[in-house]
């Protein structure tokens, strides 16, 4: 399916940018945290995992399976898992969150490498996630402005809690609210970048199969990070019931955003 470029290119870029940079709304949450506390950290990490797991299994992977079939969709999903798993294994042992020993009194210390890496890994996952979403939003807006607006609104709603997913761990790791905001905000730039790449390079060849495969690939990456990084870290600081509450609230918010669309 080749995408018609007869629509309004400028509007398509604007819609994509608004959707992607809405992560800044979520990232601003760091400015309202006066003093780091364990219970906030456990809840936020659980919330982040809930958001990512829900959007991966309820939105991204089902769309991929519907468009490319089970074999290709599932293959792309596990390729994503293997891809991020290889990256994880290549990290030096002393810097890997799985082996890094962190005592409770270190939470909130400015050089907390564990939380910083979690925030950056989440930013990477969301950035990769936003890239194909940018392609989808841009292509839809070119061929059908109304459809593009609806998709942009839905993705913007999704990106708000994703912004929180990035900003909170980085804030707890560095104590720097500005840095937390910047990293989270930057994760959303991948969306207009995806639109630009689609326009300059991929547009003549862009198809439902390519986009759907990318979505399944990203779902694999996001699920791996949630299960391997966010949830173990959330439980490490205690407050297990708060972690579960955070997961459920994160999933509930994502479910509402899907219903709004």
Search tags:
10 helices; globular; single chain; 79% helix; mainly alpha; disordered N terminus; 261 residues
Can you describe what's shown?
The protein has one domain (9-260). Helix 3 crosses helix 10 and helix 5 (113-143) runs parallel beside helix 7. It has 261 residues and is mainly alpha-helical. It is built from ten helices and no strands. Helix content is 79%, strand content 0%. It is globular and about 50 Å long. The protein has helices at residues 9-21, 23-27, 38-68, 70-90, 113-143, 145-174, 177-187, 190-202, 208-236, 240-260.
Count of spatially separate domains: 1
Uncertain spans: 1-6, 94-111
Mean pLDDT: 75
Rounded Rg = 18 Å
Write down the overall geometry: globular
Q: What characterizes the major β-sheet?
A: none
What fraction of residues sit in β-strands? under 5%
The total of helices stands at 10
Order of helices and strands: HHHHHHHHHH
Helix content: over 70%
N→C terminal distance: 24 Å
**Class derived from helix and strand content:** mainly alpha
Count of DSSP strands: 0
Short description:
The protein has 261 residues and is mostly helical.
How is this fold's topology laid out?
Elements: H1 9-21, H2 23-27, H3 38-68, H4 70-90, H5 113-143, H6 145-174, H7 177-187, H8 190-202, H9 208-236, H10 240-260
């Amino acid at each position: 399916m080749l995408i018609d470029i007869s629509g309004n290119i400028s509007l398509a870029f604007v819609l994509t940018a608004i959707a992607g940079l809405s992560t800044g709304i979520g990232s601003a949450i760091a400015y309202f945290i006066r003093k780091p506390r364990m219970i906030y950290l456990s809840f936020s990490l659980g919330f982040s995992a809930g958001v990512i797991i829900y959007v991966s299994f309820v939105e991204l992977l089902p769309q991929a399976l519907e468009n490319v079939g089970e074999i290709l969709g599932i293959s792309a999903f596990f390729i994503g898992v293997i891809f991020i798993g290889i990256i994880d294994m290549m990290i030096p042992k002393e810097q890997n969150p799985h082996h890094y020993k962190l005592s409770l009194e270190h939470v909130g210390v400015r050089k907390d490498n564990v939380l910083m890496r979690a925030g950056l890994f989440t930013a990477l996952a969301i950035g990769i996630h936003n890239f194909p979403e940018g392609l989808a939003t841009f292509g839809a807006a070119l061929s059908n402005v109304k459809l593009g607006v609806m998709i942009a609104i839905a993705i913007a709603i999704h990106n708000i809690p994703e912004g929180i997913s990035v900003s909170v761990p980085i804030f707890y790791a560095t104590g720097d609210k500005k840095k937390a905001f910047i990293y989270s905000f930057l994760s959303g730039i991948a969306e207009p970048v995806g639109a630009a790449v689609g326009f300059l390079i991929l547009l003549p060849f862009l198809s439902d199969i390519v986009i759907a495969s990318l979505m399944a690939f990203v779902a694999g990456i996001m699920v791996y990070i949630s299960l391997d990084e966010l949830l173990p870290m959330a439980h490490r600081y205690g407050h297990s019931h708060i972690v579960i509450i955070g997961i459920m609230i994160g999933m509930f918010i994502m479910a509402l955003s899907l219903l709004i669309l």
